[in-house]
């Protein structure tokens, strides 16, 4: 996982691949966004940002409330979908 997180473009590609795989399994956008939120919570608590982009995302995550974080998770899913 640390290799994937060391480069933001690699992370977006990794996430995009996982989003596409989930859609092929029939998982809907809402469920994918919920999972992205849970992953964001895990990363916030357990993983130190590896680059400037991740540090900005962490700072935004930290100042946001739950609604803001859910919005960020949905946006990350959308962003990842553009990198398939």
UniProtKB/TrEMBL annotation:
- Pfam families in the record, alphabetically? DUF3243
- Domain of life per record: Bacteria
Instruction: State the protein's name.
Output: DUF3243 domain-containing protein
Question: What species is given as this protein's source?
Answer: Cohnella luojiensis
């Amino acid at each position: 996982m640390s290799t994937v997180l060391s480069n933001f473009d690699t992370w977006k590609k990794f996430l995009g691949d996982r989003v596409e795989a989930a859609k092929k399994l029939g998982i809907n956008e809402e469920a994918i966004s919920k999972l992205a939120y849970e992953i964001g919570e895990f990363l916030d608590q357990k993983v130190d940002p590896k680059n400037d982009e991740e540090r900005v995302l962490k700072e935004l995550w930290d100042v946001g409330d739950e609604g803001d974080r859910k919005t960020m998770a949905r946006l990350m899913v959308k962003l990842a979908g553009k990198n398939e």
